[in-house]
Specification:
The complex is a heterodimer of chains A (about 325) and B (about 650). Chain A is mainly alpha-helical. Chain A is built from 12 helices and 1 strand. Among the domains of chain B are: about 140-525, no CATH class; about 610-660, no CATH class.
């Protein structure tokens, strides 16, 4: 369910960002489906390969997209079971994305271009720096809720009382920033830049064309929707009564009880509605941020990314205070 | 395994020295397989029935008897050792082929003999429980590996490195002897049985860290690691693979063996071990990134992986202290499983690096590049190994790391703030190590195999025979098997841990099996998605639509391959960020006015190991002190008689004053 909804969102997501950016800069802008029309054109186009490249260059985009699809399969939808959730699934989630990045970096290095080497090197550094922030965040949530599968974390997260608000706020903020870094967006990288020396993501795909380029762009769109879904998991309200009933059922049925964990009809409609609203707000936020925020100097980027880890640590210490006060 | 078989395996190895050189390799292979079968069968039995009686084999003659004991812990290490030794031997034939022109048959004989003895001594280390024979086997292991490193002894650096290695090994040995002696003095048993008694009746912390230091020299924990990044590159690649894959794991084995004896202070031991291991992991991978020598990069990454193993073991020890079976199972399980996994992918990577060295005669990444076009299969295997070592799903490295993650998350739910904090720090460190490994191995693979060559080196593809691929493929298939079906390997491992640490793993393992099977399913789905995508791609990309051209150069068309990113520049932004940790060694030779025959100007920049600099300083100072003391050695017989007289006088005075 979450997977399908995320794919639906991914169709509108890049177009919406583009539209918001156009409006913010005083233009009318293209239609919301324009990026996907471009992708469809790319899918049908022929490809140009550099003679320097090898098979790595050709398999990299396919693996990149596959990792994102598989990572999305792990995500739950609020109040509903994820397809493949298990304990510690967010570790797999993070490492799958890392695998995609690894192949993506290798694809860039395969061209032998110094521009792409530059981009690859920056991507490797930034993703390395962003890794701890994600793990601190989920470690904190695991500490708060006592669970390690994303579905259980999110389900019990919403019932941890008022504290959930502040932790949720920090979590959402962090996830937005991580999403921006992972997608090479504004404060770190500018997709609209036109100087190769200062690019990160765009310079890495300089030599990709046709079908492969389309795969990468689909991947980027899906990645946005994926982070949107992750954020929505914090914000979409879950039917508490239903959840309690379900957990009782869970106790009786054991593991299989998870499958019946679906709220009542109206609740689901409401949740889906809220979900789409959140995704739309997320997209507009990105559009606005990109329009009104300046890109950081490249040398400042590591500092900025490490800041996220320290914010995550603040959340961790907050949770420490909360949980140990409760014990006292 | 009985008396005759044990003696036969020892005597047969001596014939390696005398068999005709044509069949020497085949003969060595035969003997090795004989030894492997001899030890693996009881080991497999011990691992399948971990709770069963410990198997003991008494070998004896007119000089006395030695007992070889195989319990489940040594059984696990025996199997790991045997596999890597076998692949190393299979690989060695092709690797040493080109040396037949420059080396005499006698040198080959010595090499294979030492290889066999490294194997035998490692197995003995795993099976002996008596102190004297254990220490002899430990020493034989150091000496035989010393001989193996010396294969290219005509190189000055190799000789220096090997001697350095031998000295450091003996520092470790001395610590172990002190430990065993301490136990003997109070219990009367010289050996592991004596230690067990000692641990039951004395404070555990000092004696544990005495042994830990002794074994850590072998295992390569920071700050005892300085021999490792020198010795691994100097040795021939199959030896580096075996040394890094299994020999250093003998240190890990020793630590685990000692941990099974620990009765008190386990919590503190665990915390300290975790701190050391975390620093080891971070330092290892950070140094690995800035290296430009391919094998040195791999050697530093070995240190990183020892750190990960140590984190697991430390967490297990912490679990012992906190009486938490979950932490023990996950910690020891993750750590020991990583022992197996690391032995696989690190030997694979070293064999690939060996093939690269064979074909190009250089290990310097700055000069390599574009090898994937000439050696596509080696490149694919190196990529596979890199993915496994970076803990990418669905390969084996991921499984052991996620076990450690599980342990850390479980440990975080503790009742003390201190433990929660330290677990969180370990999680951050492990996540950072993961990111850094990605950085390091994207560099190792990307710059060695991708792009185009950075210098005018001749790539002699024929130097790498297809037979050298076979052991690598064997390892790669095991890596994939573990990645997709970890439960097969983990269940005996957990059983072993349960038997060694007297706990019942069932309630922890059952949900874990459920989780891991879901993970396997996810791995298979991932592979299917990739395959489907590739098929789709193949169908869409018709040959007519594909055009080939040069790489986009931003309008500049005269770019050369020397303008590509290099190993140093790829690591530069990271090196800048982590500057305080690194030491640089700059060698600059300018042309001086007074030079009569001015040589070329040269500039080299090499990353230096801080700990090595410190160690050199210590040895330099002690050399100075020793030189001062050396004045006593005058060469005059009268002086020496005077020394003896003074010595006796001092003894006499001390006795008189009742001090002695």
């Amino acid at each position: 369910m979450g997977f399908l909804l995320a794919i639906v969102t991914a169709v509108f997501f890049p177009g919406l960002i583009l539209r918001i950016k156009s409006i913010a800069s005083g233009r009318k802008g293209p239609g919301i489906l324009q990026p996907w029309k471009n992708i469809l054109v790319l899918l049908r186009k022929g490809s140009v390969f550099s003679t320097t490249t090898s098979y790595i260059f050709q398999i990299a985009p396919a693996i990149y997209l596959s990792t994102i699809i598989c990572a999305m399969l792990l995500l739950p939808f609020p109040g509903m079971p994820s397809l493949f959730g298990f304990n510690g699934d967010f570790v797999l989630f993070a490492y799958l994305l890392a695998l995609g990045k690894f192949m993506f970096i290798l694809g860039a290095l395969d061209t032998g271009s110094s521009f792409e080497g530059m981009g690859a090197n920056r991507e490797a550094l930034y993703s390395m720096l962003a890794e701890p922030a994600f793990f601190i965040l989920f470690g904190t949530l695991a500490l708060l809720t006592g669970h390690t599968s994303m579905q259980q974390i999110f389900e019990s997260f919403q019932f941890t009382g008022h504290n959930a608000f502040i932790i949720g706020f920090i979590a959402v903020y962090l996830l937005i920033q991580i999403a921006m870094i992972e997608n090479s967006r504004m404060p770190v990288d500018d997709p609209k830049t036109h100087l190769e020396l200062t690019m990160i993501h765009e310079v890495m795909i300089l030599d990709h064309s046709g079908f492969d380029l389309a795969l990468i762009q689909i991947g980027t769109a899906l990645k946005f929707a994926m982070y949107g879904l992750l954020i929505a998991n914090f914000l979409v309200p879950v039917d508490g009564g239903q959840l309690i009933a379900n957990s009782e059922q869970l106790l009786m049925n054991g593991e299989k009880g998870m499958l019946h964990n679906v709220g009542s009809g109206w609740m689901v409609v409401m949740q889906v509605g809220v979900y789409f609203m959140i995704q739309a707000v997320f997209a507009s936020l990105i559009g606005l941020m990109e329009s009104f925020r300046a890109r950081k100097k490249l040398v400042r980027n590591p500092q900025f990314i490490v800041t996220l880890s320290s914010i995550a640590l603040v959340a961790f210490i907050l949770v420490l205070l909360i949980t140990f006060k409760m014990v006292d | 395994m009985d008396n005759i078989a044990i003696f036969a395996s020892v005597i047969l190895t001596f014939f390696i020295l005398v068999v005709p050189s044509g069949i020497r390799y085949i003969y060595t292979l035969g003997v090795t397989i004989f030894i492997i079968l001899l030890t693996s069968v009881p080991a497999a039995e011990a691992l399948v029935h971990p709770a069963g009686p410990v198997q003991t084999f008494i070998a004896g003659g007119f000089l006395g008897t030695i007992a070889f004991t195989i319990d489940s812990l040594s059984a696990f290490f025996i199997l790991v050792t045997n596999f890597t030794v076998l692949t190393g031997l299979l690989y060695s034939n092709g690797y040493l082929e080109s040396y037949r022109l420059t080396k005499t048959p006698a040198q080959f004989a010595l090499h294979y003999f030492s290889y066999s003895w490294l194997h035998l001594s490692m197995l003995s280390v795993l099976m002996l429980r008596d102190g004297t024979s254990f220490l002899i086997a430990w020493e034989l292991m150091a000496v035989s590996s010393f001989m193996l490193i010396l294969f290219e002894a005509e190189k000055r650096t190799t000789l220096k490195t090997a001697v350095n290695y031998l000295i450091q090994m003996h520092v470790g040995l001395v610590l172990l002897i002190i430990g065993f002696l301490l136990a003997e003095v109070s219990t009367g048993h010289f050996g592991f049985d004596g230690l067990q008694l000692y641990f039951a009746s004395h404070p555990n912390l000092p004696i544990f860290f005495l042994f830990f230091a002794g074994f850590a020299v072998k295992a390569g924990f920071v700050p005892f690691h300085t021999w490792l990044p020198e010795a691994h590159p100097a040795a021939p690649s199959h030896v580096s693979g075996v040394m890094s894959g299994v020999m250093i794991k003998m240190g890990i084995f020793g630590i685990v063996r000692i941990l099974t004896f620990v009765q008190s202070d386990a919590y503190l031991i665990g915390i300290i071990m975790m701190i050391i291991a975390t620093l080891t992991g971070l330092y290892g991978i950070m140094m690995s990134i800035v290296q430009t020598d391919l094998k040195k990069l791999l050697a530093y990454s070995t240190i990183e992986n020892v750190g990960i193993i140590g984190m697991g073991l430390g967490m297990g020890a912490l679990g012992m202290g906190a009486h938490s079976p979950v932490l023990m199972i996950l910690g020891f399980g993750g750590g020991l499983f990583h022992v197996l996994n690391h032995s696989l992918f690190k030997s694979l990577l070293f064999y690939c690096a060996g093939s690269v060295y064979k074909a190009t005669h250089t290990r310097n990444i700055e000069q390599l590049g574009g090898l994937i076009h000439r050696m596509p299969r080696t490149a694919a295997l190196f990529l596979f190994g890199s993915m496994a070592i970076c803990a990418m799903p669905p390969l084996n490295g991921f499984i052991s790391e996620i076990l450690i993650y599980y342990g850390l998350f479980a440990g975080m739910q503790a009742s003390t703030v201190f433990q929660t904090m330290s677990m969180m720090m370990s999680i951050i460190a492990l996540a950072l190590i993961g990111g850094l490994a990605l950085f390091g191995f994207s560099k190792a693979f990307g710059l060695t195999f991708l792009g185009s060559s950075r210098s005018e080196i001749h790539v002699d593809v024929n130097a790498v025979s297809p037979a050298m691929l076979f052991p690598k493929l064997l390892i790669a298939s095991v890596i994939l098997l573990i990645g997709l079906a970890p439960v097969l390997f983990l269940l005996p491992l957990f059983g072993m841990i349960g038997a060694q640490f007297q706990l019942n793993p069932e309630p922890i393992v059952l949900p874990l099996v459920h989780t891991l099977s879901k993970m396997s399913l996810m791995g298979i789905i991932f592979i299917l998605v990739v395959v489907a995508m590739m098929i789709l791609r193949k169908a869409v990309m018709k040959p007519g639509k594909v055009v080939y051209g040069p790489t986009w150069g931003c309008g500049y068309t005269a770019g050369t391959s020397r303008q590509q990113y290099t190993a140093t520049s790829y690591a530069s932004n990271f090196a800048e960020l982590a500057n305080p940790v690194f030491a640089k060694k700059i060698e600059y030779r300018d042309i001086h006015e007074e030079d009569i025959f001015p040589a070329k100007r040269s500039f080299t920049l090499r990353p230096a190991d801080v700990f090595r600099t410190v160690l050199t300083k210590i040895t330099d100072y002690s050399m100075l002190a020793l030189k001062k003391i050396a004045r006593l050695q005058t060469g005059n017989i009268q002086h020496y008689i005077l020394y003896a007289f003074v010595f006796m006088l001092i003894i006499f005075i001390l006795l008189y004053l009742n001090i002695l």
